[in-house]
Amino acid sequence: MKMLINVAETVVADALRGMAAAHPELAVDVENRVVVRGDAPVAGKVALVSGGGSGHEPLHGGFVGPGMLSAACPGEVFTSPVPDQMVRAAAAVDSGHGVLFVVKNYTGDVLNFDMAAELAEDEGVRVEKVLVNDDVAVEDSTFTAGRRGTGATLFVEKIAGAAAEEGRPLDQVAALARRVNENARSFGVALAPCSTPAKGGPTFELPDGELELGVGIHGEPGRERRAMMTSGEIADFAVDAVLSDLRPDSPVLVLVNGMGATPLLELYGFNAEVQRVLAERGVAVARTLVGNYVTSLDMAGASVTVCQVDEEMLRLWDAPVRTPGLRWGV
Amino acid sequence: MKMLINVAETVVADALRGMAAAHPELAVDVENRVVVRGDAPVAGKVALVSGGGSGHEPLHGGFVGPGMLSAACPGEVFTSPVPDQMVRAAAAVDSGHGVLFVVKNYTGDVLNFDMAAELAEDEGVRVEKVLVNDDVAVEDSTFTAGRRGTGATLFVEKIAGAAAEEGRPLDQVAALARRVNENARSFGVALAPCSTPAKGGPTFELPDGELELGVGIHGEPGRERRAMMTSGEIADFAVDAVLSDLRPDSPVLVLVNGMGATPLLELYGFNAEVQRVLAERGVAVARTLVGNYVTSLDMAGASVTVCQVDEEMLRLWDAPVRTPGLRWGV
Fold it and tell me: What percent of chain B lies above the pLDDT cut of 70?
């Protein structure tokens, strides 16, 4: 498997150096692996810190900036960051108003963010945590007890980030973040596996002519394998899986997310089918985002995330954001 | 080759329907295949129209909006749009101050935009054209007499688009667009081929363990094939190819562009190496953009575009832009 890298061991550090060069508005600590918005700590503001294994870019480092995350901690590829990174990030961004940890539900991330929260609190930083577990595909999975955290992470980070930017206190920002997660559901499909630099090849096998329905963002098994389906059939399956778990009675945000190697041309076509199914099921769509946001290296496929919003959440979604991966209004 | 599509015949129409759903600020004419900014024609403003084969998204439709293109005409995958689309687009966006056609140098595009310019002028629309031909890899190529147009298209559309937004007259906008093209050079590499929906498989063969140096954005042959190289070695080769043709004596804009299937993690790592080589060669970098902007469906690989800018061009690059694919300052 050919990759655009030097050696597997330096992939994350190399990417952070490249990110620092492209984004002078961020403070990138390559050695300690922490990406911080350049103007942190921001006086009077609750800080948001997230992180997780690398390989899902632009998540999380690409969502650092005004209106979204205060800092991100990238781990090795598909491997949790360590508590030291999170404690360092919290110390760098805390203005005295506390820090919200946004944690995707994978065992390693949960343990390490828990430990980091204790260590940070020992140093006098108030910490709240929100666990993101939106993936309806399976109840338990490789690396996860309970549901996996996937696309809803973007909605949590954006909406809670906007609330923090408005100066809301930690308990309110944390409660809002949990509310976003509770109102969001995701379902993903893989058409072809991803390859990690360390392995140098695919992390799982997917026969010609089959797809994985309900795949995780590290290639974890989903619900079932079937013979290849059309875009419309996949949209029916994915949206129905989401709606069987969350029946929205108000407008939704929709994320049609590419896993990494699926062309934007195909993602837009898939979005047309997702919108068709939502309309057929009577679900009103407030906003739609199409693109590669929560990726799985070079996996081919896509995921659908639906997030039911009230007027306040929609206003916070629309609020200005200035990050490498998501930017509008500023 | 599995694809997230319904059938090959409807790929472009499906994508346009999905784009219309995601971007209500655009007017997407699915039947006639024209993407227009929703507020066009804008009084007193020169309009910019571009287009080309589909499969390079977000180019061009994703660059329609305030500060960049007024309209885009998507052809079939890797196939020029037809003159009727371009004439229709010009009529939709012309405010009476004329239209600039931004044309990538491929034989079909050049012929069809030439014909469209004549037809539009017959209908009373003033038209200027700029030909983008920045790819230093080869002099003539499949589909092209002379150099191919690739990554510089983004710089031309952004900088000339900003000038038009400021209310400059057609001759000035056209002259500026030509100046951007003259000051920009690109070089691309492929690690794996792309697959078109019509063919249902790869458009060219690339053996295991080899890469194509100087590949075109439709998979056209480049300068040579070699055994796989590191990210650093590729950056040396690509940047030196660019700098052997353009020796900048002022700061440059850099685009490190993904071909489609190369993870953002790898693109950022590649950017670190590109920046190293530019620094070693004494080239000052003003701005850097890293991501998938001028893609080739699911090709794996990347391209480097360098554009020498003066203070005016840099100011226009930094000016606000609000499109699906490029957005800042608004």
Answer: 100
Expressed as residue numbers, the domain containing B246 is 184-317
Out of B111, B146, B179, pick the residue that ends a domain: B179
B207 and B119 belong to one structural domain:
no
Domain CATH for B248: 3.30.1180.20
Q: Which of B4, B211, B292 faces A2 most closely, judged by CB atoms?
A: B211
Per-residue pLDDT at A140:
87
A262/B5 Cβ within 8 A: no
- Please give the single-letter amino acid code of residue A287: R
Do B161 and B125 lie in one domain? The reply is yes
Q: For A156-217, what is the HEC assignment? A: HHHHHHHHHHCCCCHHHHHHHHHHHHHCEEEEEEEEECCEECCCCEECCCCCCCEEEECCCC
Which domain-ending residue is among B179, B195, B221?
Answer: B179
**Contact residues, chain B, for A11 at CB < 8 Å:** 265-266, 269
In the block, residue with structure tokens 């206003």:
A315
By C-alpha distance, the chain A residue nearest B21 is: A272
Record the tokens describing residue A54, joined without a space.
Answer: 């690398």
**Residue range B143-170, pLDDT digits in tens:** 889 999 999 999 999 999 999 999 999 9
Interface test with A, best of B268, B275, B285, B323 (most A CBs within 10 A): B268
Is A60 known to be catalytic?
no
Total residues belonging to chain B = 330
Q: With CB atoms and an 8 Å threshold, state whether B297 touches A265.
A: yes
Q: Active-site residue A218, yes or no?
A: yes
Reported pTM: 0.98
For A197-213, write each residue's pLDDT tens digit.
999 999 999 999 999 99
Residue A160 sits in the same domain as residue A200: no
B264 and A295 within 8 Å at the Cβ level: the answer is yes
Give the pLDDT confidence score for residue B217 in this predicted structure.
96
- Whether A292 and A256 share a structural domain: yes
Mean pLDDT value of segment B55-70: 98
B170 with B234, same domain? Answer: no
B329·A330 Cβ contact <8 A: yes
Total domains in chain B come to 2
Is residue A258 a part of any domain in this protein? yes
Q: What is the sign, positive or negative, of the torsion defined by CA atoms of A6, A12, A16, A19? A: positive
Is A263 found in the same domain as A200?
yes
- Tell me: cis bond preceding B320? Omega within 30 of 0 counts: no
- The dihedrals phi and psi of B228, each to the nearest 5 degrees, come to -50, 140
Q: Which of A23, A60, A97, A218 is catalytic?
A: A218
Do B155 and B208 lie in a common domain?
A: no
- Distance between A149 CA and the closest CA of chain B, angstroms: 20
pLDDT reported for residue A275:
98
